[in-house]
Each structure stands twice: as structure tokens, then as C-alpha cells.
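Long-time lurker, finally posting.

We've been working with ABC transporter ATP-binding protein (Arthrobacter crystallopoietes BAB-32) and I want a structural starting point before designing mutants. I don't trust myself to interpret raw outputs, so I'm hoping someone here can both generate the C-alpha cells and explain anything notable. Sequence follows.
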Amino acid sequence: MKLQEKPVTVNNAAAVPPRLEVTALSKTYGSGPSAKCVIEDLTFTIGTGEVVCIVGPSGVGKTTLLKCLAGLQPATSGTAAIDGRTIAGPPAEMALVFQDYSRSLMPWLTVRKNVRLPLRHLRLPEAELNQRINTALEAVGLAHAANQYPWQLSGGMQQRVAIARALAYRPEILIMDEPFASVDAQTRFELEDLCLKIREDFGMTILVVTHDIDEAVYLSDRVVVLGAKPARVLDVVDIDLPAPRDQISTRALPEFAEQRTMVLSMIRKPA
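Top reply, 14 upvotes:
Generated this for you. Predicted structure of ABC transporter ATP-binding protein:
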């Protein structure tokens, strides 16, 4: 059983209406002479059903931007909005998956109970709760591990649990902060493909913050490239690669290498 059937294929921003809009967004920590501006005057949009990656040098402010978009901290100026509504706190239609799955999962709870955790406040009937959990675990290939504990699973499986927990909440927008950085290369490829499958099966709008340029090009409909300090948008690159994408054939395409080189050169170019 699938959560919902909304297959989406997106080639560029012009094909779909904007879902998430960032307008002249800036974030400064502190005040007075010691104030530190981290991001400044960022403007970009994410279309409904798109997968968009945000890349940039280490320390450029990618995670700070994510926290502003997720309503975890306020912007100093400018706005982030969903469907025209300014984000002033964690949006009900959004879920987050963080990099450190080992800290986000409760080791004393089974996989099923970890997935159930964010659903407690929804006050759903027990039958619907179980249906959501089962569907989410099936979607990430962990139906067989429902009664195991996180410490009994590999790192990749633990991250799948974190993704399943987000899916069970049934978000319309999924934000992931370096979600595959802590796993081995083969597992990373599998989780990247899972991300694309989630978009196709569930019709979600997905935003991924990553340091990995190859990953950004492989996953994205568009890549938002951040640079300079305070961070600004250097460019938004349309990724025009054929679908469905494949870890071997897609990465072997000349266009993949060209777009990877384009994004990398922007990041490495002196400000």
C-alpha cells in the first residue's frame, strides 16, 4: 500500500507553481559591533513536487538557512513562505530528517515505536496510526524490522527509520539536512534512490542540504548554489537529466559531468 498516488516528474521551475518561496532572507546573530550576518538577501523558490538541493562551501550557512525555512529560528529580515503564508514556526505540512540519525532515534524504542513517536499529538484512530506506520515502513523497505531496535540495525537502516518517521507524518514538504553523509558510499546511493522514489510515489516537495556536489546533481531538478560570506545565492542551476535516474547510467552521462563541473566551479570560485 502506498501513502498516496501522486507521481510527479519535474524538469524545471517553470513547469510547476512555487510551493516554498524565499524572499530577501537574511539572518544575523547578535547585535551591535559583535553582530555576525550569516546569510544575506537570499531569494529563490521551490516548485510543487520538485527536488531541490542547496550546496555551498562548509560554514557558508546552509544549516542556518534550513532552520529558518523549517521555522526553528526566525529570520532577521526577509521572509520564507509556504503557499504565500509566512513561516513563523514549524509548519504543519513540513517534516525534517537530520544528518545524525543515531541521536534522532530513541534506542529504547522499537522501530515501530520510533516511527509512531511524532504521530502522538495527531490523535488519530489506532487503525489509522497502524496503517500510516506500516505504509511508511514498507516504503523504506523496513517492514521486516518493525520490532527491532535501532541499535540492532546498520547505519543505513537507521536512516531509513528516520525517513519512515517523517513519511508517517505525511508531510507535503520534506526537508533533509545532510541526510546521507554518515553512511558508506553504497548505502548512500541506495538512500538517494529512495529519496527519488519518495518523490515519485508520494508527490512530496523535497529540499536537501548537502555538501556532495555529485549527490546534488543526481537528485535535483534544480540546485541552489550558495557562496560568499555572508552567504548569498550565486546561481540556481536547472538540472536537465533524463528520468528515471540511475546510479550508473545517469552518472556516466556527459551532461552529468558538465553540470557537476559547473556547480563545483561556482563553489570554488573566489568570492
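Before you design anything, note these points.
The beta strands are 18-29, 36-47, 51-55, 77-82, 85-86, 94-97, 173-177, 205-209, 222-227, 232-238.
The first helix runs from residue 62 to 69.
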